[in-house]
Each structure stands twice: as C-alpha cells, then as structure tokens.
Amino acid sequence: MKRRAFLVAGAATVGTAFLPKPFAVAAATGDKKGVMLMNRIGPSASHLYISNLDGSNERPLLGNATFDYHAGFSANGQSVVFTSERRGDGDSSIYRARIDGTGLQPLAIGRAVHDAGVLSPDGTKLAFVSTREATPGDHKTHIWVLDLRTNKLKNLTNAPNVAGDPTMPDGHFRPSWSPDGQWIAFSSDRNTPWRGHDDGRGWEHTQELSIYVIRPDGTGFRKIATKEGYCLGSPKWSPDGRRVVFYEITTEGTWGAHRPDYIGRVESQIVSVDVATGARVEHTSGPGLKVSPQFVNATEIGYLVKGGAAEGLAYTSGTIPAVKRPWVRSPVWSPDGTSVIYDKVGWSVRPLDTPLYSWDPDWDYRFCDVFPVLSNQGRLAYTEKQLGHSSIVTMNPDGTDQRVVFDSYGRGLDPSLVARGLAGAFRPAWSPDGEWIAFGLGGWFFMRATSTAVVARVRADGSEWEVLTDGTSHAGFPSYSPDGKLLVYRVWGAENKGLRILDLETGATRVLTTEYDNLPDWSPDGKLILFTRKMDAVNFDVCTIRPDGTGLRVLTGGSGANEGHAVWNPDGRILYNSGMYGFREEAALYDNTFQPYGQIFLMNADGSGKKMLTDSIWEDSMPIYLPNKVLSR
C-alpha cells in the first residue's frame, strides 16, 4: 500500500468556490423526538396546466397550486381529479376540483400512496392506485374503487384470482374506465420476475407490464394484451369502448426511459388492441419515447413524446400539429377533444432541511444531500452532490461553521463527471475522535467499470488529506472501527471484490469477504459490520458479519427485490432502503431516477421487526436520526 499526504492552504480557503448554501436543521416541532434527515430523488415541483389542443391559451389549472400531477377529466368535462402533495412533500393524495380550479375536495388521503385517480363515467365512483394495506403488511400498489356516495372501498387486485406471486413485483397501475362504466383497464407486472437492467447485470430493475381488464365489482378479470420482452403501459379506451390504446416499449427500455443519459435514445410505439379479439394496430413507428396515449376522438390519438428535441404533445394522424414543450408530463385530453391538461415538472435543487411528509408521529422528516453522517462530537458531514461538485461538507447541525473540507475539483478527476455526480468524494465517515473524515474518491455508479477510485481521508478542518489505498482496485465506502484503528471498505472488480480491513497503524490490509459486497458500516459496539451483498444477478440483500469474518447473517430476503444502503442507528437498529413492495408507478414514466420505488425501512440487528418509514411515489434513502439533544447543542 502506498500512502501520500497532501498539504493544502488551510481550512479557511478550502473549497471557497463551492461553499454550501445556508443549511440549519431546525429543531423538531411540538413534542417530537427530533429530525430524520433523508434524501429524495424526484421532481422538486409539479404544476397542472391546461391549454387548447394546439398548445395555445396555456394557463394554470388551479389557483392554489402546490405540488400537483396526474390529472384526469370527468366524463362531462366539468371537473378534474388529480394527485397532490399539498399535505406534505412526498404524501400523494387524490383531490377533485371544478375545471375552473374552484371547489377543491379531497377524495383519497392517508398515510399511503394514492395516485392515478379516474372517475367513472357517471361520476359516482373513483378508481385509483393505492399502497394502503390490502392485507396486513401488504403495501404494494393495488387498484381500488371508492364509491363516492357511500365511501365504501373495494380492492380489485388482491383477490385470489387476480393477485400475483408476492415474491415478484406484483404492482397494478393506471386504471381507466370503459365508456359504459362496466370495465376498468389497467397495467400490471404481476407474475413477472425481478429483472436487472443491462440484460440482468444491473442493480436497477426493469419492468414488464401487460394490460388487463376487470369489472368494478372484481369479476371478469382477464389479460387483453401482452408481448414477450415488452412493457405495455397506460391503457385508455376508445370512445366506442371497442379498443384499448397503450404504449409499448422493450422491458430493457423501461430502465433507459427514466435515466437522464438514455431518455433521448429509447424508442417506444403507440399500439391499440381490439378488446374482444386481441387484434393489434400499431399507430406509430420510428424513433422517440412515446407514452401516455389517449383517443382524442374516434380517429385521433394523442400522446407524449418524452425527452429529446421533439419533447411535447404529438398526434398519430399528423393533422393536428405537434406541440413542443419541454418537461411536460402525463397529458390528458378533454372529452370534447378541445383542450388538454398536463404536468409541468421542475428539477431545481431542494433546499437542505426542506420539510418532508413524515409517516412517523415521533419525528420530523427533512431533506438532506447524500450520505449524511454525524460525528461522536455532534458535527454533521455529507457529500454535497446536488450542487454539482460532490465534495465533503461539514457543519454544526444548527448551520454554523459550514465548511467544504474536501473540494473534489482539482483532484485529478474528470470535471464533467464531477459536475454530473458520477465522480467525486462519496460517503464520508468520521473517525471516532472527530479528527479525520474518510471517504471514497474517484468515479462511481456505472463509471466504476472504466474509472478508478481510492479510499482517502481528510483532516476535519480541511488542512491535510491523504490517500490510503494504492489504486490497483476500485476502492470506496469506508467506515471506521469504534476504536479508530481500523477502516473497513469495499473493493470492486471481476478479479478483486468484497470487503477489506485496513490497519491504519501498520498499513496492513486483510480480506474480510470475497463476494460482491458494498457499503460496509461498523456497528457502534464494534462487534458487527453491516453491508449489502449481491446475492444473484438481480437481488441485493443486507447482511452482517463479525470483523473476524465469522457469523455471516443475511437480514433481508424473500421479496426478490433489492435491499441496501444500510447504516447503523445509534440505538443498535438498522436503517436501510428496500424495494420489497415493488414499483409505485410505471417505470417508464419516471424521470432522473435510479431505483424509483425505494422506501426507507428500520429493523433490529437480527433482521426482525422490519418497519417501513416512508411510503412515497419517489426514491427515498440515506436516512439519519438527529435527536433534539443533538440539534440543541
């Protein structure tokens, strides 16, 4: 092992070009125990607009707009239902309003995802997607019907003849009423296996959907459209009720459809089927990611071109001019075919400490950048990824004494990759005495296949840093032993993988594991090391092992989904991220996400007592609890 020390000008001048924005974790409200910081990958804003068919006369739909999306017209065109997070950032609920934006009324609210609401043709029932418990412990997305006259709820997709294999994704999405109100079409990935992207080699999952119909009383369930190796999504009925239109994309393409680096290169088509015979018609051809189709009238189908130079609204016949409009999503056309409602989403940086909806009455939830960690002395560190430099920032939790103690620019990394969050200083780890911060430095995510990375550490005041590994293996994600003498970290590569333990006094390194293991975290009592293991081509689980290499225990598993990003809570429990309840939305409709359905969980050190701490439509991860006693120091 080669170690090199680098002296810098001093803490006062470190990273002056990238000082963090003011950030103070406010004390928890009321009699709560404190604050849980967490990261969320999702849009920071979404508003509903309405315009004429040609894009003219665009205006906000609602006068009291907050965070609103996924609208749907009533059959008479006089009202609209939509999803809103006005109860809190991350809490999706369904509301109804008149088409002029007045008469706001909640229809489906509560501590779960409520989304994609559509009114029956007679206006008496609401079909929607919800993760509310269908049975105890089942938080997957199901299709529900709410009778608006009696408030009676019915779950259509958990009956024995409909429910899929619970170890598989088993989600149900985007309900649509037939014009006569006798049927509901929807998409589902029921009974499809968990698949990794890149032909099964990637961490993030792809999605295979088929189109089904069911009566609102739960009878008549059947599949009406499927295609091997493809995902069929967002069904809508023709005005005469004979056909259902949907988008069709390869299963692999559902990953690229929500990745910022692939969205403009993924292709899909608009297809419809005869409900009675299954006869197909392909209404489009050629390049472009085409989603959200709808019959505008008996002969015309509108859809969204997502991403690329032509992003906006388009039509299959070509007689209605396309409307180029960036970051438009989820269009829905009025029953008379004269107007269209759509989302306009924004991706400005969420300010740190932004309040998020809390599913736990004992804790406030707030937004933070990635990999937050608290020192034994009560100082916060994190990777400042969202500002485009992936550097190490420290501060007191009250916002004072903020410092960029390690600036990732000028460290031999590709500046364009640093700006995109694909390279930099990731996952800080405090030494027990608070004098050092260890981290990984290099290229990350898919860049690890072509980039190098080393474990390094920097003085807490930013005055000195050193590289701790020799660069022959892609190394990162370090964690200190409680006595500060050892570092555990992971190495990645086909010939050299697993966890390693570095003795900081002697420089000796020993092998702890030789599987594809990642994100190690030393327990506060020093007895266990927590980490994520790649169990097979598409499944990752949270594990623990003793520092001497004995006592391996797999703490998660059985769902087929990914679990990871695990960290120790100071009370000896484990916080982690899981997709065990499947997707919350059709994968191709997400933007700028990696694992769009991840939720935060808490469990005991032996894997028992698993509890879900978030239930949003977005990707939530990287939590840390800050009790009031820490915030008041």
Automatic annotation (TrEMBL):
Q: Which UniProt keywords apply?
A: Signal
Source organism's superkingdom?
Answer: Bacteria
Give yes or no: UniProt keyword Repeat: no
Q: Which residues form a coiled coil?
A: none
Looking up InterPro entries in the UniProt record yields: 6-blade_b-propeller_TolB-like (IPR011042), WD40 (IPR011659)
- The keyword Nucleus is annotated on this UniProt entry: no
Which residues, if any, are the signal sequence? 1-26
- SUPFAM superfamilies named in the record: DPP6 N-terminal domain-like (SSF82171), Tricorn protease N-terminal domain (SSF69304)
User: What is this protein's name?
Assistant: Uncharacterized protein
Per the UniProt record, the source organism is Nonomuraea rosea
